[in-house]
Amino acid sequence: MKLLVVEDNRKLAENIKAGFETHNYFVDLAFTGEDGLELAQVVDYDAIILDILLPDLSGFEFCAALRQEKATPILMLTALGDIENKLKGFSVGADDYLPKPFDFRELLARVEALIRRQQPLKREVLTYKGLVMDLKKREVHIEDKPIKLSAREFGIMELFVRFPGVVFSREQIINKVWESHYEPKSNIVDVYILYLRNKLKPFGYDVFIETVARIGYRLKRLDGEDYAER
């Protein structure tokens, strides 16, 4: 899962980022409303945590502008906890509102609830041939034997298993799995595909990740069987 935190208090933003990363989230930070809006417009985030009192574009203005283009879940996290500001936040498109100070456990629970509501049909277990991915436990098994994947390896594999046969460009994989600061021309995707293939090779599954020349990668579609969650 990929989050954007828009918060001008750098220490607080870094603490939020660290907290979510311990739960296998990828987190981008923006310290101004303008920078945050630019990221939110070009990157597909699963949710956005948004302060209101930002140095340039306010959280209210950010939310109203983004709602012209996207329905990304937004949780407003702010010291403005009075009812009038809460109502204003909801009126411009916020999905949830949490006043400061806050307990991180509540923030985590609220963000997870927002994401669940956006993805009500997604199953927690995906399968492909003898490979089983438990999305909640972040575990992968092939023929009942565990495989230890890093967070990014897991993210790439999840993308492939959800959409077997679909070709993903390197830029698409970066946007789905990595933080936004990586350039599409970077070879970081190729490096992690190599890591992933090496971990799948003992089981003979490395051959299922196919390279599509000048485009990107895909997981081989096994016709006639419904291996992945639809």
Automatic annotation (TrEMBL):
Q: Which GO terms describe its molecular function?
A: phosphorelay response regulator activity; transcription cis-regulatory region binding
Q: Which residues fall under the DNA-binding region feature?
A: 123-221
Name the domain of life. Answer: Bacteria
Q: Using the record's annotations, give every residue carrying the modification 4-aspartylphosphate.
A: 51
Asked whether the keyword Cytoplasm is assigned, the reply is: no
**Which GO terms of the cellular component aspect does the record hold?**
cytosol; protein-DNA complex
Domain OmpR/PhoB-type stretches = 123-221
Keywords, ordered alphabetically: DNA-binding, Phosphoprotein, Transcription, Transcription regulation, Two-component regulatory system
One of the GO biological process terms = regulation of DNA-templated transcription
Known Pfam families for this protein?
Answer: Response_reg, Trans_reg_C
Q: Which residues form the Response regulatory domain?
A: 2-115
Task: Enumerate the SUPFAM superfamilies for this protein.
Answer: CheY-like
Name the chain's protein: Transcriptional regulator
